[in-house]
Amino acid sequence: FLTHKGYLRKKAEIIAKYINTANNTADVLAMLVTEKDDYFQIVKEKIDPEFKRSTAFELFPSKKEKFLESVKEMMTLKNRSNIPSESDAKHVWENLSKILVPDILKPQEKSLIDHVKTPSREPDTKSSASLKNYFLKLSGAMKDPISPKRTYLTFNPTQRHLLDTFGDSLRHVNKLYNEAFGYEARKVPSHIAHFVDRNVMSRLTDRFEDAFIETSSHKIRSSNDMQFAFSYYYFLMSEMDSIEVEDIFKDFDTDDSGTWSDREIRTVLTRLYDLPLDFSTVAGFEQIITNCSLSNLSPITEFSIPHGERYYGSKLPVVSLSLVKNCPPVSSLLLQHFGNQKKNGFEVVGEEEVAFKMIHNNVSQVLVQIDDLRKHPKKFVCLNDNMKHGTQEAEVIRAVIQDFYESLFPTRSQFELTPEYRNRFLYVSELRKWRWTRDVIRIITYLTLGILILFSVISFLKSETRTGERYPRLRTIQNRRNPQHV
Q: Where is it found, in Gene Ontology cellular component terms (predicted)?
């Protein structure tokens, strides 16, 4: 609790600290609250240089003498406590605010002191809470002007700011789905194998085309991506389908008779109204059906009531599809409750069939994790690779994990490559381009070989033909040279 006297004493002490901070006159101002008379001379010797440098005291020497006299009066008083009394505090405050503050203090601190001594901003001295807040603010102004809260902050504007792009992408998709499908609690899908229906995925990309085009333009993960698993599964669970009255009628017509029996009508009522059903609800619905059958002027296909379709004493007409469609109260009620339903079937299960393990470079820890998976087999297993590769421990852990998977799947899948092969294609387009290039080279090679073989055969045949023709000519030449052999 702070009284008025205490407030004035505290005020004088804080102003003295201002002077101490601004003009390095700590010794001078400390003498204002000392007890010994002989300190006055020291005060005068230390404060005179400050007065000489001040243009205010050079222009008004009387102010200097007046202030020194007031200081001397305070210092000569005996049994002085370290905190001035009420009258002394008032006197010091008036002198400091009128004489010292405007001229001695530094220019950058003058505005702070002017703010303190402005009459329009004087604190409320009637309540202790306001006085406490005032002194806290005033004491804070004497310190570093930076807010104390900033001393606890470790963020440096020049340092790299790490972003949670995965979490941001989830929030981005959640915001889009809130606007499209309404607000609901959406959880992150487990780290499992995702089976994607091409038709559902096609509808998803068509509805959020701009968002997927934006995602495709990013080379790395970004905050405004359409996170694949999250966006796919919650679109699958949120997509609605409009149901016509015909489909609703057929759903409740379990015996495929083309009409609703009394038991089927009761099933409809249990879906439309809260349980337990009272007599007025059943009677009201039957009255609506009866009224529609009497007032309906459109042609209705005649049906005979199948045997066993009516309870004893029932007066309901034949409730056919035509009657339901042409009865606005019933058709609108059915559309209101069953007109929109989930388009895709799904089931949300817990995490009891999912195992997630973070793999580090600790071989013993990895062995414990693998053995836990062996002891408690799950339907889905996710091993998150967080190892530092290139070390001996990483090679051992890799062998342990491979042994674990071979114990689960000893037979290699047809889609897996043998250990000596690696898939060098990241995208299917690259694989198709490579195949096209390979096929072109193969065709060119085959054509070249075919042409070479063809030329070889032709050359061989020509050489054989010329050899047969060469012998008769040679014989003719020999006969001409040796006529006796003819």
A: Golgi apparatus
The burial of 370, by beta-carbon neighbours within 10 Å (0-12 exposed, 13-18 middle, 19 or more buried), is given as buried
Identify any residues that bridge with 354 across adjacent strands, giving them in sequence order. Answer: 380
Render 185-207 in DSSP notation, one character per residue: ---PPPSS-----HHHHHHHHHH
Q: 299: which 2 tokens? A: 């042609």
| DSSP for residue 259 | E
pLDDT at residue 308 greater than cutoff 80: no
Q: Which helix (H) or strand (E) holds 46?
A: helix 39-53
pTM: 0.46
Where helices occur in 376-427 by DSSP H, the ranges are 392-408
State how far Cα 453 lies from the chain centre.
66
Q: How many helices (H) and strands (E) does the chain have?
A: 21, 6
Residues 6+ positions from 485 with CB-CB distance below 8 Å:
478, 479
Measured CA distances, 14 to 130, 366, 483 (Å): 16, 64, 151
342 CB-near residues (< 8 Å, 6+ apart):
237, 239, 240, 241
Residues whose CB is less than 8 angstroms from the CB of residue 204 and which lie 6 or more positions away in sequence, other chains included: 231, 232, 235
Gap between the Cα atoms of 434 and 59, Å rounded? 94
Question: Which 3 state secondary structure label does DSSP give 329?
Answer: helix
**pLDDT tens-digit profile of 203-249?**
999 999 999 999 999 888 888 899 999 999 999 998 888 888 888 88
pLDDT of residue 107: 44
How far is 328 from 386, CA to CA, in rounded Å? 63
Provide the 3-class DSSP secondary structure of residue 28.
helix
Give the chain's mean pLDDT. Answer: 73
Contact by Cβ (8 Å): 234, 204: no
* H/E run at residue 360: none
pLDDT of 108 strictly over 70? no
How many percent of the chain have pLDDT more than 70? 59
- The secondary element (H helix, E strand) that includes residue 382 is strand 380-385
Tokens of 3: 């009284």
Q: Is the pLDDT of residue 141 over 80?
A: no
Q: How far apart are CA 314 and CA 316, in angstroms?
A: 6
